[in-house]
Amino acid sequence: MSNQLQQDHFKVKPQNQVVTKVSPEGGDLEGAKYLAGRGAQFNTKNRFLKNEKTREHVEAIDDWEETNLPTQYLEQDSKTIVNKVESKDVGMSYSMNPYAGCEHGCIYCYARNVHEYWGYSAGLDFEQKILIKKNAPQLLRKFLMHPKWDATPIMLSGNTDCYQPAEQKYRLTRGLLEVCNEFNQPVGILTKNSWILKDKDVLRKWRKKKLYQQWFP
Ligand code: SF4
Predict the structure, then answer these.
(1) Could you give the 3-state DSSP secondary structure of residue 29?
(2) pLDDT tens per residue, range 150-208
(3) How buried is 206 (Cβ within 10 angstroms: 0-12 exposed, 13-18 middle, 19+ buried)?
(4) Which residues contact 71 (CB under 8 A, 6 or more apart)?
């Protein structure tokens, strides 16, 4: 196990909950507290990075405090928004994800590992550092205008939840739905966030056209 992993696991700032934490080796960590509102409790090592910054723990010197940082939104201009899904294990051919990382922070999430591709950790970073593809609706419009596009259904949230809290600020999912509606593009939506109800108006239009399905995991 790397130093960073050990350090992060053992040096968690006490929050408002008193819960016994279990070490990677299975022993109880007396006095350690959970970071409230987070699924992961530390940053795991990114297997793609050759060099990582770590903080050395010197025995008998005062411990540093690991704070539960507020979620950061990292805006970016993306090059693409629609991805072809090659896996036969999932029932979708194309997906689009306006956000990378997910503040819902489910510990079992299969998308955590994808965060390592962007240089972050699959642990706390996944739920604290959310990448915002702020030009997503424009990219989708360009994609759907391609003369060879055959309107195969696209899954919104094939990777991360498109109605996670960032949507309340950026409304990129809303923007994508409006573009799909305009082009009569069939869409599937996978979410566990009730914020989807804010888009009832556009979804109703679609229901009439029989162009969308939704799933609540
Ligand atoms: S809501 Fe979905 S995408 Fe978000 S962390 Fe949970 S499982 Fe992952």
Answers:
(1) strand
(2) 999 999 988 999 999 999 999 999 999 999 999 999 999 999 999 999 999 988 887 78
(3) buried
(4) 103, 127, 128, 129, 130, 165
Tokens at residue 103, please?
A: 């503040």
Q: Are 208 and 181 in contact (CB under 8 A)?
A: no
Mutation test of ligand 1: which of 164, 195, 215 has the most ligand atoms closer than 8 Å to its C-beta? Answer: 164
CA 145 to centroid of ligand 1, rounded, Å: 30
Domain spans of the chain, in order of start: 6-215
160, amino acid identity: T
Model pLDDT for residues 93-152, shown as the tens digit of each residue: 999 999 999 999 999 999 999 999 999 999 999 999 999 999 999 999 999 999 999 999
Residue given tokens 């008193």 in the structure block: 18
How far is the C-alpha of 99 from the C-alpha of 28, rounded, in Å? 36
Q: Whose CA is nearest to atom 7 of ligand 1?
A: 109
Residues having CB closer than 6 A to ligand 1 are 102, 104-106, 109, 111, 160-161, 164, 192
